[in-house]
Design a protein that fits this description.
alpha+beta, about 170 residues, globular, five-stranded mixed sheet
Length: about 170
């Protein structure tokens, strides 16, 4: 084989190897950047723990810590207010007043639906133990709830929260 043909064969083989390597590396980078391809759905236990974190934020007495659990575009339909809250300022305002009652929540029944790696719904019944700021008397309030969670920027946030006093049987 003459020298010029040998050089072309070597260059062609090098180009094929380089192209294959680039393709393989590109696929690897694309897959590494797509977190969904390497992780499964959240577990029910993980989603159930989000309530515990929210409840701990309530226990802090700091409306800012509670509000941090909500997405910037979250919707809150609160238990003790007729006003729909649709931004952090409104959500913080609600909790500023609600936290004066030193609420402590406990789940009575929970139905968790994990939709995918980045979204889940937790619905059920919970009980709040509320303290009257004037008398110091504590009373239980049973309510039904729905939390819709989304994982944004690697953090689980509440995007929709509905809570209403449990109606008496009728």
């Amino acid at each position: 084989m003459n020298r010029r043909i040998r050089t072309r064969v070597v260059l062609a083989a090098t180009a094929v190897v380089a192209a294959a390597g680039t393709f393989t590396a590109g696929v690897g980078v694309a897959q590494a950047g797509d977190d969904r391809s390497h992780r499964g759905k959240a577990t029910e236990r993980e989603i159930a723990g989000l309530f515990d974190q929210w409840n701990a934020a309530l226990q802090s007495g700091d409306p800012g810590k509670v509000t941090e659990r909500y997405a910037k575009d979250a919707v809150l339909l609160p238990t003790a207010s007729p006003t729909i809250r649709t931004n952090h300022a409104e959500i913080a305002d609600y909790f500023e007043h609600f936290l004066q009652k030193k609420p402590r929540g406990e789940k009575l029944r929970s139905v968790i639906t994990v939709l995918d790696a980045d979204s889940a719904i937790d619905a059920g019944l919970y009980r709040f133990h509320l303290t009257d700021p004037k008398t110091g008397a504590t009373k239980p309030v049973d309510a039904r709830y729905t939390y819709e969670y989304e994982k944004r920027g690697g953090k689980w946030l509440i995007v929709n929260h509905h809570s209403s006093v449990l109606p008496t049987e009728g």
